Amino acid sequence: MKNNKTKKSEMPMSRIALSLTLLALITACATSPLGRRQLKLVSDSEISQMGVSSFTELKQKTPATKNSTEAAYVQCVAGAITRTIPQMQWHVAVPTSWEVVTFESKDVNAFALPGGKIGVYTGLLKVATTQDQLAAVIGHEVSHVLAGHSAERVSSDAVGSLGTAVASAYTGIDTKSLSAVTQTLFLLPYSRTHETEADLLGLDLMSRAGFDPNQAVALWQNMAAASNGQAPPQMLSTHPSNQTRIHDLSARLPQDLPIYRQAQASGQRPNCKR
Question: Which letter, b or e, does each residue of 128-165 get, where b requires 16 or more Cβ atoms within 10 Å of its Cβ?
């Protein structure tokens, strides 16, 4: 009898949660620059505030490089990319200015945050060996912001958590088990979608800025060599495999090479030196 009462009390709440989830999915739809449907439950201003706060906190924890030459080099490449942004059509509020910080770290990584923040770790410069390869990385990271991926990820995580609670109430399976399934089958593939979209949009950006898009392929060949085969299986990774990225970028080159040549012909010839 006690178990039956528990189930009866849970059912209305689970139905309410399910209704709220469906309502969110119906009313908060947006479209990415590549035409993919997106879920957004937070505004551009809200996600920008989150980005600015996160960047401020990171700067307090991670030292900026003291190598002024490397910092100027990163600033030069990032500036060429961000000046190109207004030439393209985006579905979010585009930052009017970008703060660029080069962090002293062995991590092979970079990021961009809503609110116009770009961070590059010095470890990346050992793998992204040319200005064009660095432009591929910065173009990719900035594209996450411009495509609304940050707001989308916050929204999907919220709905994923709610959906897990609903499923647990209906099936009786504990939330820990369901969370692992959600992580693998929903959140991780969703993030891989973001990564692929940012790769392609980043290629568009770097081409318009006058950087050689062929070097985006070379970058991921470098990444593959640097990983020494240690990347996790693609299904369990938040990123596409290096080979998948190389394939997708190569397939888009015929679209972006003419854009690159036109940019070069019009005087877009970045000359960022380390």
Answer: bebbbbbbbbbbbbbbbbbbbbbbbbbbbeebbeebbb
64 bridge partner residues: 103
Beta strands in the chain (DSSP E): 29-31, 37-39, 99-103, 110-113, 117-121
Distance CA 216, CA 120 (A): 17
The answer to whether 11 touches 126, Cβ cutoff 8 Å, is no
pLDDT tens-digit readout, 79-97: 999 999 998 888 788 899 9
Q: Is residue 15 part of a domain?
A: no
Query: Is 157 contained in some domain?
Result: yes
What is the three-class DSSP state of 186?
helix
Does residue 47 form part of some domain?
yes
Task: Assess contact for 74 and 100: CB atoms under 8 A.
Answer: yes
Instruction: Tell me which residue has tokens 């299986």.
Output: 233
Helix axes 242-265, 214-227, angle to 10 degrees: 150
Percent of the chain with pLDDT over 70: 73
Provide DSSP, 99-137.
EEEEE--S---EEEETTTEEEEEGGGGGTS-SHHHHHHH
Domain that holds residue 43: 33-265
What is the per-residue pLDDT across 192-246, written as a single tens digit (0 to 9) for each?
A: 888 999 999 999 999 999 999 999 999 999 988 887 767 655 544 667 888 899 9
> Looking at the 3D structure of the chain, how many domains does it have?
1
> Does residue 30 sit in helix, strand or coil?
strand
Tell whether the model's pLDDT for residue 175 goes beyond 60: no
Q: Is there a domain that residue 95 lies in?
A: yes
Of 194, 86, 64, the C-alpha closest to 140 is 194
Give me the active site residues, please.
Answer: 141
- All residues at 6 or more sequence positions from 148 whose CB lies less than 8 Å from its CB, including other chains: 30, 32, 38, 40, 91, 92
